[in-house]
Write a structure and sequence with these properties.
Strand content: 15-25%
Helix content: 25-40%
Order of helices and strands: EEEHEHEHEEEHHEHEH
Number of strands: 10
């Protein structure tokens, strides 16, 4: 089976693929201080619970694909693959890895690996033109052309960042649970903040996507909009532009890139 690991700034998502099917997944906090040995213990604890895997670390794992936006974690995971999975083919997404998606930006090496991987999955699953909206630490909007090229995107503060900023900078405000309020017009401070977050972000998504779609295609209706990321469900019901929700888009992209590169190893 293939182990896929997507390291974000806040959370790390792991997925286990049996062929094309994701059969298990886990979400843990990203901690840049964890060493390779600590990560190996964590992986063993998680995967040891799965009935299709053996008790020893690496049993049943035929391949590993990793992308990370945190360089220190990527370094430690590289060590994990070397020390604990030495006989298992491993693909770490970095410059030089073949993704099949041309990057048409001013500085291609600056584009986050997860954003390119999302584009790979979007092209495979839905074709182009497409826009991927990823609700993570930042809310990112990534544009894929009709020819399957990554042409650029938009980066905005994420939902959790905005909630934390309100709590820190507002003298009479506090950090709240991100949840849908009873109504748009809040009847108390918490509901007013929840309304601002949920409906404010939904409006942001609609506005940004509509502008991007007009630049991406002569017919904006031809553009498929895909939502992913842990906080996507909070906005799905309120946005009018999202066509598809694929929570495992990045993990699917990692599987596709692994399959493209493993034959070269």
């Amino acid at each position: 089976m293939l182990l896929t690991i997507d390291v974000g700034n806040t959370h790390t998502v792991l997925g286990l693929f049996d062929g094309d099917e994701i059969v298990e997944h886990w979400r843990i906090s990203t901690d840049a201080r964890r060493t390779a040995d600590e990560l190996a213990v964590l992986l063993q604890g998680l995967m040891g619970m799965h009935p299709l895997l053996g008790d020893d670390l690496g049993d049943g794992i035929d391949g590993i694909a990793i992308c990370a936006t945190v360089p220190s974690v990527l370094h430690e995971l590289r060590e994990v693959t070397r020390r604990y999975y030495g006989d298992v083919p491993a693909i770490l997404i970095e410059p030089g890895v073949k993704t099949g998606v041309p990057i048409l930006t001013d500085h291609p090496k600056e584009v986050g690996a997860d954003r390119i991987i999302n584009a790979v999955a979007a092209v495979q699953l839905y074709g182009g033109p497409a826009i991927v909206v990823d609700f993570g630490t930042a809310t990112t909007f990534d544009a894929v052309s009709a020819r399957g090229e990554y042409v650029g995107g938009v980066i905005a503060p994420g939902i959790e960042i905005s909630v934390e900023a309100l709590g820190v900078r507002g003298a009479q405000l506090r950090k709240i649970e991100v949840a849908r309020p009873r109504s748009v017009i809040g009847k108390n401070t918490v509901e007013a903040m929840q309304s601002g977050i949920i409906y404010g972000f939904a409006g942001q998504v609609d506005g940004v996507v509509n502008r991007m779609a007009r630049e991406l295609s002569d017919d904006p209706d031809d553009v498929t909009v895909i939502a992913t990321g842990g906080l996507a469900p909070m906005v799905l019901g309120e946005s009018s532009v999202i066509d598809e929700h694929e929570p495992w888009l990045t993990l699917i992209g990692l599987r596709l890139v692994y399959e493209r590169n493993v034959s070269r190893m």
